[in-house]
Fold:
Amino acid sequence: MSTKGTAERIIDAALQLVSEKGYTAATTKAIAELAGVNEVTIFRHFGNKRGILKAIIEQFSYFPLLQQEINKNVTWDLETDLLNFSVKHFNFLMSIKDFVMIGFKEAMQFPEINEEIANIPLHIKNELIHYFQEMYERGKIREIDFEAAALSLIAINFGHFMSRARLGTIVSNIPTEELLKTSISIFSRGLTP
Amino acid sequence: MSTKGTAERIIDAALQLVSEKGYTAATTKAIAELAGVNEVTIFRHFGNKRGILKAIIEQFSYFPLLQQEINKNVTWDLETDLLNFSVKHFNFLMSIKDFVMIGFKEAMQFPEINEEIANIPLHIKNELIHYFQEMYERGKIREIDFEAAALSLIAINFGHFMSRARLGTIVSNIPTEELLKTSISIFSRGLTP
DNA sequence: CTAGCATGTAAGTAATTACTTGCACGAAAG
DNA sequence: CTTTCGTGCAAGTAATTACTTACATGCTAG
Structure:
C-alpha cells in the first residue's frame, strides 16, 4: 500500500459512490469503507471532503481528450469517418461515465465540473466543424450550417450514451454498434449533396 | 392558503431544490422555507421526506404524456412532421426539466422515477416506429431499421435538450429553433429514399 | 357562536456527519 | 539502530438532520 495507491483507491471509491448517490449522500465513512482505508486517512490526504472531488476534477482535467484520436484514420469517406467518430465518441463517454454523471449531479455545488464537462462537446464541435468544412470544399457534403450539424451529431451520440448508461436496455435492446451504424447511415446520407 | 395550495407549494419547492441539489442535500428545512410553510407542515402532509418525492412521482405519472400531441397535425410530409415532433418533444422535455433531472440524480434511491422516465422515450419510440412504417408504405422513406431510426431521432432531441438544459449557451448560442431545424433537415433527408 | 381543521410555534430527541486529536504500530530510509 | 512516515484505532465534538410532541392561533362551516 504505497501513498499513491491509497489516494488512488480513495479517489476511485469516491468517484463510484458520488456518481451513484451524489456528493452529499456519499459519506466519508462509506468512501473510506469502499476504499478499504480508515476514515481519518481521507482527511489526512485531502484535508476535507471537498478535497476529494477537487482531486477528481484535477485528475480528469489531465485526461487525454478524445480530440487527437478523432483526427486519426480520416478516410474522407463521409459515412466511414462519421461512424468511426461516433464509435470513438460513444466509447469515450462510456469510459468517463462516472465523471459525466457527477457532472450532471453536482453542477450546483461544483461549478468547475460543469466547465470541464462542457469542454468536451466544445472541443469535439470545433473538430467536427473543421472536418465538415474540408468535406464541403471537397464537394462531399451539401451546404449547411456546419455548427448545427456538428452539434446534432454530438447530440445523437450523447443521447445514445445517456440512454444506455442510465436506462440500459429498457428502451431498446438493439446492440450499440447497430444503433450507431443506423444513426450514422441516416446522418451521413442527410449531409450528402 | 387552502390545503391543496400548501401541499402544492411544498411539492414545487421540493421539485426545485431536489433537482438542483439532489435529494439528500435538499433538507426538509430548506424545502419548508422555500415553500413558505413551517417544517412540521411537511410531515403532517407527507409523513416523511420520502413522501414528498413519492407525491412528486405520482403527480408526474398523471402528466399528459406527449403521445397524443404527436399524432395530431400529421401532414405526411416527412420534414414538416419531424420538425413539428422535434419542437414538441424538446418543449415537452423542457417543461418537465426538473423531473428529468431528479430522475437522473436519484435513480439509485428512487428506482420508480427511473421507470417513469424510461417510459417517455419508450412511448415516443413506438409512436415514431408506427409513423415510419406508415411513411415507408407510402414510399416516402427508404428501407431502414425503424426502431434504430426512432431511437436516433429521440437521441438527437434529448441531446439538444440536455445540452441546453445543463450547459446553456456555453457549447453554442445558436437559437434552439434553428438548431432543431438543421437537425431535422439532415435527419429527414437521411431517411428519404 | 362554536366546533373542527389546517397551520404556526417552541422545544426536544436520536442519529448521523464532517472532522479532530492522541496514540500505537510497522516498514522503509538514513 | 533510530527516525520518519503513512496508516490504523479509539474516542470525541459540534453541527445538522429527519422527525416528534404539545400547545396556541385563526379561518371556515354548520
About this structure: Chain B touches chain A through 53 residues (CB under 8 Å). Residues 27-29, 39-40, 43, 48-49 of chain B lie near DNA strand D (CB under 10 Å from a C1').
